[in-house]
Amino acid sequence: MDESSNTRNQLLQAIDQLVNSGGSISISAVAAICGVSHSLVYNRYPDLKERIKELKRAQKDRQKTATEQQLIDNLLAKNKVLLKKLEAQDTRHEDKEFSQLLAQLQQVYSMYDQLLEDRNRLVERLSKP
Q1: Around Cβ 11, how many Cβ atoms within 10 Å?
Q2: Taking 60 as the threshold, does the pLDDT of residue 1 lie above it?
Q3: Which residues, in sequence order, are CB contacts of 73 under 8 Å at separation 6+?
């Protein structure tokens, strides 16, 4: 095995290590693990450079989806609290207030559905070779 294929194997192992550990993926991080310069990856391994960039994009997409899911969960929890408060109060509420709350709840569910679709598309995209 020549030095070039040995370096390539080390780079591939470093990529796998970062993916499996959940570490932040970047060309610099992969190069640092292998003890090589990031310019080596850019210049001699353009296919690995592209793979790292795609993994980094996917990682950012997952983080964004997780953040959005957390926001949705928080909104749903707030709506649940509001619904409990409404139930505890006298059931005589103005139709306008109830309609606004219902509209908010529908918006939250709509956001949740959209995020779920985005998540499913991302999973499909990540599972493709």
Answers
A1: 24
A2: no
A3: none
